[in-house]
Amino acid sequence: MKRILLVGEDFALLATRTALLAKMGASVTCCSSLELRTHVGSARFDLVILCHTLEDSVRCSLAGDVRRRWPNARILQVLTRFDSAAEDYCPAPAGVNAYVPATEPGQFVSLTMQLLEGQP
After folding, report:
1. Helices within the chain (DSSP H only)
2. Which of the following CATH numbers is that of domain 3-116: 3.90.870.10, 3.40.50.2300, 3.10.580.10, 3.30.10.20?
């Protein structure tokens, strides 16, 4: 079973996304940014999803932390807005594999499935 770590600050939203991801057959663990940095170090995850409820600078910093901690994990960053000039993109060194707008649940599911299968 694929393991997903869902990181965000809005626990109602995390519960909704967890239910959606669990229906896809994944094992989902939720945590806040603080919990990620302090409590989740020993587990292994196939995909880490950084939600748009995290502040931009925190989300980018966490992406780097995730890449160092789990080098083979895929990282999906959920963005508040999604365009070529978006300020909330993490820089390339953070190792984010894909970006999805928060307003597109269908694209969120599709990208999640692709990333769990090792794409893109």
Report:
1. 11-23, 33-38, 56-69, 105-116
2. 3.40.50.2300
Residue 99, beta-bridge partner list: 77
- Report the pLDDT value the prediction gives residue 21, as an integer from 0 to 100: 92
Nearest in space to 49 (alpha carbons), one of 73, 24, 15, 23: 73
**Ranges of each domain in the chain:** 3-116
pLDDT tens per residue across span 25-45: 999 999 999 888 776 667 789
Question: Distance between CA 7 and CA 36 in Å, rounded?
Answer: 7
The structure's pTM equals: 0.89
